[in-house]
UniProtKB/TrEMBL annotation:
Its EC number is 6.2.1.1. This is Acetyl-coenzyme A synthetase. Residues 34-90 form the Acetyl-coenzyme A synthetase N-terminal domain. Residues 92-480 form the AMP-dependent synthetase/ligase domain. Keywords: ATP-binding, Ligase, Nucleotide-binding. Belongs to the ATP-dependent AMP-binding enzyme family. GO terms for cellular component: cytosol.
Length: 659
């Protein structure tokens, strides 16, 4: 296979980084320096990682061994005999140095209401909540679910868990009550931390109500700690189970000793969608994960003292974990927590945010970039973005057009754009430019981060493709500190999903190419995962939500190309006998998915058909549906397994009518 023609433009690191005038030089300021460090990370991993782990983190008990285990066996561990405490590393160290240093800038939903949390205040808050959790009887290794809006207290809740060695599982507050219940049950959480309500674009979100609904099917949950965000009096309160955050914290002393944990003890579970219907609880560790989050942030965003870093991701996703909370705090940096939406009160909100807080590094998703670009340059240009140095993108491939707009209009041609490729499972960036060093090509995530040994494999034979100008599936050849260690309660699934498909490699689930210059280009998922606005959705999960409706016989869900969201959910449904295909039923089915999973899973297109394309043995051939919705019905490939070729015309007709 050869690599298709790429945009040929190459952007050198901007002057602002190469010639920083009065500011610190970038941590890595040339390709030669990157290559030297990268080479060291692969050739002398013990020295490299010992230095990084001791410079970056404070250990209670130093490790004597850097790494053990292998991808083949699936038993990797990092710094296994080291002990540390994550909240100590993220909070106490900086509070001791300078309690007035700002940890979080909180940009509340309503503009003009920003506030700050210093490291000194953060320490008190984290300790207070940790003591409350301790008073609930929670001890090291227990799991706590967090279902909260984007407010500093969400980070406080995470850090309070970390202080006691509790494992948190943050569930994105846009998920429905049944999705929340599924995760709470799978994680065996006995305590849920939430808020009375959320606010997004001035609209209240009934956060606590969703928790109440979810907990009807979670009898194991003993306590719900409720933070008062809006103070709406009508929010239900169950006195035998619910505890007000402010009352409980007021009853505790404001210091809580950090509990030492092993580097390999889990810090959190985070559920993500895979090829099958059931979400996977990806397990991340305390030592390796924290190191990965901190180091990638430092090098990829070139963080220095006095920088103000802003990542717009919700803490319910891995990007929020690594780059709103753990990475910035592990570096003692200032992180912006943004509660609102990019278009409230208008499409200049992000840029206003940059101006108001003098943000130096800004990190968002291609879907937001595309959406804001549609509103026109005026919204950007009216704000002073001169504080920015590095602007990042994550979540899906960024189209060269969107990249160029981001670079020219938002970055004003003065900033480095970092297109960061990584996953929930990788814990932190694995492929990304370094802003002071890497010449970028719009649309390419460029080169591997330190310690990441990439390979491109032939998808069928699993053979590693050597040299440049090749395409295949992306794999990683050796363990790295922040990689996931297992799936909660299902190590076999971990092995089967990531390590067994190509023995000796971590299989990322993405297609990729390496161009003639050695740059990596991510081509999107090769499994049944759809990427909608940078959020992973499993087709199987949406299908099972649809099948849960009494009128549905079968369903097949595929991703359709979408200018704004990258991919959109397109659902094909056949009905049971006796049900009529009509618009009302279609609306009801879309609603069914929203209620069962949440608004992010809303099918954009729902097509009722008489039949689905199937193999002779009765398996639905989603590939055909994918091609038809992409307008590529003339490139269906091998159709020999299709049991009834006559349905193709029907499919093309209904799809054309629906799109
Ligand atoms: C961090 C995050 C992971 C999937 C991943 C890939 C896609 C993420 C990307 C990208 C191209 C990038 N992805 N970043 N594709 N270029 N810079 O998004 O984690 O939600 O687990 O999604 O997202 O397909 O496999 P997660």
């Amino acid at each position: 296979m050869t690599v298709e023609a790429q945009s040929s433009a190459v952007y050198s690191p901007p002057e602002r980084l190469t010639n920083p005038e009065g500011r610190e030089k970038p941590w890595v300021s040339s390709m030669a320096q990157y290559e030297e460090l990268y080479k060291e990370s692969l050739e002398k991993p013990a020295e490299f990682w010992t230095r990084m782990a001791t410079e970056t983190l404070t250990w209670i008990k130093p490790f004597s061994q850097v790494t053990q285990g292998s991808l083949k066996a699936g038993n990797m561990a990092w710094f296994p005999d080291g002990q540390l405490n994550v909240s100590y590393n993220c909070v106490d160290r900086w509070a001791a140095q300078d309690p007035s240093r700002v940890a979080f800038v909180y940009e509340a939903d309503e503009p003009g209401q920003a506030s700050q949390v210093t490291y000194g205040e953060l320490l008190d808050k984290v300790c207070g909540v940790a003591n409350v959790l301790h008073s609930f009887g929670l001890r090291k290794g227990d799991t706590v679910a967090i279902y909260m809006p984007m407010i500093p207290e969400a980070a406080v809740a995470m850090l309070a868990c970390a202080r006691l060695g509790l494992v948190h599982t943050v569930v994105f507050a846009g998920f429905s009550s049944s999705s929340l219940a599924e995760r709470v049950i799978d994680a065996r959480a006995r305590v849920v931390i939430t808020a009375d309500e959320g606010l997004r674009g001035s609209r209240p979100i009934a956060t606590k109500k969703i928790v109440d609904e979810a907990l009807k099917s979670c009898p194991e949950v003993e306590k719900v700690l409720v933070y008062r965000r809006t103070g709406n009096e009508s929010v239900a309160f169950n006195a035998s189970r619910d505890v007000w955050w402010h009352e409980a914290v007021a009853a505790q002393r404001p210091y809580c000793p950090p509990v030492p944990v092993s580097a390999e003890d889990p810090l959190f579970l985070l559920y993500t969608s895979g090829s099958t219907g059931k979400p996977k609880g990806v397990v991340h560790t305390s030592g390796g994960y924290l190191l990965g989050a901190a180091l990638t942030l430092k090098y990829v965003f070139d963080i220095h003292d006095n920088d103000v870093f802003c990542c717009t991701a919700d803490i319910g996703w891995i990007t929020g974990h690594s780059y709103v909370v753990y990475g910035p705090l592990a570096l003692g940096s200032t992180s912006v927590i943004f509660e609102s939406v990019p278009t409230y009160p208008d499409a200049s909100r992000y840029w206003q945010l940059v101006q108001d807080h003098k943000i130096t590094q800004f990190y968002t998703a291609p879907t937001a970039i595309r959406a804001l670009r549609r509103h026109g340059d005026e919204y950007v240009k009216r704000c002073d973005l001169s504080s920015l140095r590095v602007i990042g993108s994550v979540g899906e491939p960024i189209n060269p057009d969107a990249w160029t707009w981001y670079n020219d209009v938002v970055g004003g041609g003065r900033c480095a754009v970092v297109d960061t490729y990584w996953q929930t499972e990788t814990g932190s960036h694995v492929i990304s430019p370094l802003p002071g060093a890497t010449p970028s090509k719009p649309g390419s995530a460029t080169f591997p981060f330190f310690g990441i040994e990439l390979a491109i494999l032939d998808p069928t034979t699993g053979a590693e493709l050597e040299g440049n100008d090749i395409s295949g599936v992306l794999a990683i050849k050796r363990p790295w500190p922040s990689m996931a260690r297992t799936i909660a309660g299902d190590h076999k699934r971990f092995l089967d999903t990531y390590l067994n498909p190509y023995p000796g490699y971590y299989f990322a689930g993405d297609g990729a190419s390496r161009d003639a210059d050695g740059y990596y280009w991510i081509r999107g998922r090769v499994d049944d995962v759809i990427n909608v606005s940078g959020h992973r959705m499993s087709t199987a999960e949406v299908e099972s939500a649809l099948i849960g409706h009494h009128a549905v016989a079968e369903s097949a869900v595929v991703g359709a190309p979408d200018d704004l969201t990258g991919q959109a959910i397109c659902a094909f449904v056949t009905l049971k006998d006796g049900f009529d295909a009509n618009d009302e039923l279609k609306t009801e089915l879309v609603k069914e998915v929203r209620t069962r999973i949440g608004p992010i899973a809303t099918p954009k297109i729902l097509i009722l058909v008489d039949e689905l394309p199937k193999t002779r043995s009765g398996k639905i051939i989603r590939r055909i549906l994918r091609k038809v919705v992409a307008g590529e019905a003339d490139q269906l490939g091998d159709l020999s397994t299709l049991s009834d070729p006559s349905i193709l015309d029907m499919l093309v007709r209904v799809v054309t009518a629906a799109l």
